[in-house]
Amino acid sequence: MLNYEKNWILVCMKTTSIIASVLSLLAPNLVMAAAAEGMQDFTGHWTGIVCIILFVLAYALVISEETIHLRKSKPVMVAAGLIWVLVAIAYIGVGDTHTASTIIRHNLLEYGELFLFLLAAMTYINAMDERGVFDVLRAWLVNKGFSLKSIYWITGALAFVISPIADNLTTALLMATVIMAVGGKYKTFVAMGCINIVVAANAGGAFSPFGDITTLMVWQKGKVEFTQFFVLIIPSIINWVIPAFIMSLKIPDQQPEAMNERVELQHGALFVVGLFAVTIFMAVSFHNFFHLPPVIGMMTGLGLLKLFGYYLNRRDRYFPHPADDDLGDTALSIETSDQGGYDARHTMHYNIFKSLERAEWDTLMFFYGIILCVGGLGALGYLAKVSEIFYIDLGTTYANILVGVVSALLDNIPVMFAVLAMDPSMNLGQWLLVTLTAGVGGSMLSIGSAAGVAVMGQARGIYTFVAHLKWSWAIALGYAASIAAHMFLNKHLF
Question: How confident is the prediction for the chain on average, in pLDDT?
Answer without folding.
Answer: 81
